[in-house]
Each structure stands twice: as structure tokens, then as C-alpha cells.
Amino acid sequence: MAFEIETVRAAYPALAEGFRHFDAAAGSLVARPVADAAHTVLTGAVANRSTAFAPGRRAVEIVDAARAAVADLVGGEPGGVVFGNSATSLTYLVARTLARSWQPGDEVVVSRLDHDANIRPWVQVAADAGAVVRWAEFDPKTGELPVAQYADLITERTRVVAVTAASNAIGTRPDVAAIAALAHAVGAACYVDGVHSTPHQPVDVGSLGADFYVTSAYKWSGPHLAACVASPARWSGLQPQKLRPSSDDVPERFEFGTPSFASLAAVTAAVEHLAGLDGTATGDRRARLTASMTAAEAYEQGLFAELVQGLSAIDGVWLCPAPEDRCPTVAFRIEGQHPAETSAALGAEGICAFSGDYYAYEYFTAMGLRDSGGAVRTSIYHYNSAEDVAVLLAAVRRLAG
Fold first, then answer.
1. What is the pLDDT of residue 1?
2. With 80 as the cut, is the pLDDT of residue 62 above it?
3. Where is the Aminotransferase class V domain (predicted)?
4. What average pLDDT does range 52-63 have in this prediction?
5. Can you tell me the distance from the alpha carbon of 52 to that of 249, in angstroms, rounded to the nearest whole number?
């Protein structure tokens, strides 16, 4: 395993501007090969999809390559990769499509730990269908999402269990496989929000037990595009509302309008970039991705431990409770200071860190923090350096002092 931080950082042109980026949970910087891939398509002869002429065939190849790349990234099948503008829009699409067969009294299980994009679509379609919403609660003292509660929440009427693979607020990684097994035992589907987990660890949708897995490319060095991955057979059993002349094939029937071929080429380049984070990795792309994401995770976790230890040692700084085993994200507040004020003060020093609820609406409401500004969120990504962490900690010490 080899992870060379200076080599990794050199692939991100934006780092030359000198900002300290702890905002990757909201969107990472773009790697140079990703930008180059988009530029090549935007300046080249690429038409809409057609087999009649070369520019049209290039578009077909771009789409196929992007599906294969995302499948390699998460351990899925290319024919089961559906692209969309965002994870939110894709989740609405799946929720509305699944709910078309629901009956009054059917049930859906959601979690208060989740990003609202994996809560509100299910709550809203349940209301339209007359279905019941059941809520899984996180432990406010530990930040964990206890699996045991799902045995009571999931019943024979459960149709979908929606759960995050990692909290975008505090990094908690629930035991998705165990939750999915409980869902499958009653014939329910498990819809997994992988937006925050995919950038930080190897992913295997089969091991997770995810029937649907959604991820956003702009969280892992790619363009603003998302994908929802399921088996082709799962997609085949669903019929979304769509334009009559548009393709009824899977996965195309779930994609509306002409896609951005430049963005799709950039998705493929982003996956290739991730596969090269470990310069010694060998084998096919899936094998190189597993090795590289494992190396990146180890690097990130080492840096994150320094960040959490440093923040914990500063008087006047309070960290939102979270388990030790989590994605590299921490939310904190400085005593007597509004989180937005902290974020702005850090920003004035060139340190990028968001404040607020970051769409973890139910989490911050349950914690009693949302009305007072939520918290400041700092997240580690594989291009962060030890110097970044040292600069952030020094700034927080000054603000807290």
C-alpha cells in the first residue's frame, strides 16, 4: 500500500490557490484529469447518441464507459447504473416509482441520522400513498444508530428501509448490512445513501445488502452528477413516469432527456483518478480501486485522529458526540459563538468549513441545535495535509481563547 500525499495533492490544481479545504463533505475539489476529460468532450466532435456516425458513436461510448466506471467503484453492474442530476433527484425518482404500488397501511422506515435527501422523499411519497412512516432514532450520547431497534420497526408491511451508509453530519457508519438483512427478511427493499461514505472507503453494494445505492460524483473528485446503482433485474421491475418515445430499456428508462456527455466523461476520469491513489496498486480497475480507497482511508483516518484529538483538547470547544469508527467528519461548536460566526472567522483566514445543519435537518433538530445554528463541520479528504490540520487547530484555538 502506497499513498504519496504530495503526488495526490499535485493532481488538484485548485490547491495552488492556498485555501485550507475542510469542506469536501459538501463537495470536493476536481482533479486535473477530470477537468481535462470534460474539456476534451466539450471541444471535440461529440453529438447526441447515434450509431449512424462517429460523433454519435462517441457519445454512446462515453455513456457506456461511465456506467462501467461507477459499477467498478461500488461493486455493481454497469447495466444497473442510473445517472441523474443529484442524489436528491434520484431518490425522489426511486421513491415516487416504488410508491406507485404501495397501499394504505404499507410502511417505510427512515432514520433521523440521515441527510434530508434520504428522508423527505420517503416521507412525502408515504403521505401521498397513505403509508406509515416509522422512525429509527440515533443515540444522542454516542451518535450511533442502534440496529436492535429495526427489529421492532420493520414489519410485514414494510416496503422500504432507507438508511445512510455514513452520516454527513458526524460521520457515523451504521451497520447497513445488518439493517438490510432485517429488511430483506420481510421482503422490503433497502435504499442506501452512499453520498458521504463513497469518497472515504472501498464500497461493495453486495456486501452492504443495498438494493439501491446512491452516490454523488462531486463528493469524490468528479463533476456535479449522481448515480443510483441497483441490479438490472431490480430496475426492470419498475416503471417510472416518462416520455412516451423515450427508451424503455434499462437503465435508460430512468434517465430523462439528453445527458451531459462532458460530465459523464468526467465521471469516468474521476473513477480512474481514484483507482490511482495507490501508485503501487495492480490488477483490474476494481482491484485498483479497492487498494487505492483502502490506502486513502488509512491516510484520512490518521489525519482525522489528529484533528479530533486537537479539537478535543481546546477549552471551550464542544464536539457533537460520534462513534470512534466513523467517516472523517466532525461537527463542533465554540462556546458563546454562533457557528456561522466561527465559519466566517475561519473563512477570513482562508479555511473553508461550513456551518449550519448541512441538510441533516432531523439530526440537528433532535439534538436541539438547529435553531441556534447547528454546528461547524470539518471533514478530511485525501488531499488534506498535516499542515492543513495544524493551521485549522491553531485558528480554532485563537477563536476559542
1. 58
2. yes
3. 22-391
4. 97
5. 20
Say how many C-beta atoms besides its own lie within 10 A of residue 87's C-beta.
24
> Does residue 306 share a domain with residue 249?
no
Phi, psi of 249 (to 5 degrees): -75, 160
* 107-134 residue pLDDT tens: 999 999 999 999 999 999 999 999 999 9
List beta partners, residue 216: 226
Judgement on whether residues 94 and 22 belong to the same structural domain of the protein: no
Q: What is the CATH number of the domain that holds 296?
A: 3.90.1150.10
* Domain annotation covers residue 283: no
> Cell 432531523 maps to which residue?
362
Q: Which helix (H) or strand (E) holds 64?
A: helix 54-74
CA separation for the pair 70, 286 (Å, rounded): 10
Residues 24 and 57 in one domain: no
Helix 261-275 crosses helix 32-42 at what angle (to 10 degrees)? 150
pTM: 0.98
> What distance in Å separates the CA atoms of residue 142 and residue 171, rounded to the nearest whole number?
12
Residue 297 has phi, psi (to 5 degrees) of: -60, -45
The continuous run of DSSP H or E covering 333 comes out as: strand 329-334
Tell me if 238 sits within 8 A of 90, measured CB to CB: no
Q: Which of 183, 237, 224, 167 is nearest to 25 (CA)?
A: 167
The pLDDT value recorded for residue 282 is 97
User: C-alpha angle 100/115/211, rounded to 5°?
Assistant: 50
Q: Which amino acid is at 128?
A: D
Identity of residue 127:
A
| Measured distance CA(216)–CA(70) in Å, rounded | 10
Same domain, 254 and 370: no
- Distance (Å, whole) CA 331 – CA 120: 23
d(CA 226, CA 85): 6
Cell digits of residue 385: 495535509
Domain that holds residue 61: 35-273
Tell me, yes or no, whether 280 lies in a domain. no
Does 154 share its domain with 40? yes
Q: Distance between CA 332 and CA 321 in Å, rounded?
A: 9
What average pLDDT score do residues 82-109 get? 98
Instruction: List, as one string, the DSSP characters of 348-371.
Output: HTTEE-EEE-TT-HHHHHHTT-GG
Q: Are residues 19 and 73 in the same domain?
A: no
Asked whether residue 58 falls in the same domain as residue 71, the answer is yes
Is residue 150 located within the same domain as residue 198?
yes
